[in-house]
Amino acid sequence: MADTPDGSSSESLVDIQAMLRLAGIEPTGADLASLGRILPGVRRKVDRMYEIDTGDEVTASVFRAEPDS
Length: 69
Description:
- By secondary structure, the chain is mainly alpha-helical.
- It contains two helices and no strands.
- It has a domain at about 10-50.
- It is elongated.
């Protein structure tokens, strides 16, 4: 799967600009174009992670400090 912008790339650029503006960041045109290219791929990857049904399973390692007997 290639990480190329699709028909919603201009919408992605608007979203990126809005998010960065809220954080007080003004990216250069080159930075904005780069973010616009990678955002669709990142969104797909995050969506795939959310599709995994973990049920009641713990999704992170848990360390319980107990003395050795």
